[in-house]
Give the backbone structure.
Amino acid sequence: MMDQQPLRKFTDDGIDRFRSYLTNLGNGSAAAPPFDLLVDSDASRPVHEDIHIENRKFATRLELARYLDEVLTDIEIDGIESDVHLWSWLSLYYFDQVCPVGKNGGRKPGRDYRHILEPGYRYGHNHLIAGAYLVYTVYGLNNDLSKLLLYTPLHIESGFHHQLATRQSIITNRGLMDAAHLLYYNGKTAKPKHGSIPRYKPGSLYRFIDVIQQLDINYDLYSMTGDEVLQLLPAEFDRWQE
């Protein structure tokens, strides 16, 4: 596959052929990715003649989101966040990163929505490329607040991304996302603080979500800053603020 090429998107035929490949892969096929679909005139079509996409290696989903924000910023695509054909084409383009070959020589694609976008809050965030772009750009978390959610390699959706991006009342509330960042992000390791995920641990992410949902009944959380939200949290969260 070329190191750089004009940005394209799948046709319906391209989507069908890519989905067929994913199905066969999930059933144990060892076939190589059908990269020919990326430029096949029946399977894909150009998006913008002046926009080129690079087949570069990304260490994290944050790096990918940052790059795509730069590349796509000058493209006017109505409803880009739900453009199934664009994001699915990009998934195949970066398939060696979103579905890498494992130690046993095989690939584990998982559910189709990880590679073929299913728009909406139920599964849209699960798309390994579009989900990262949504957090970084569409939800406006940008470089700082995206760090908590997008620190993983391209083929892994972090627990923080999975739990927060599915909840519209949280992911769209900058104050709540800032509070989560202040609580759980470790700037020294560039990862969440150790032990901040477990469901039944006091002050963990799951407890944060539960408490926020309770506070939302009596407080206008959309009007608050991250620091103001932290002041409302019970004592079990104190250790995470240190």
Notes: The chain has a mean pLDDT of 93. Residues 1-156 form one domain. The chain has two domains: 1-156, 167-242.
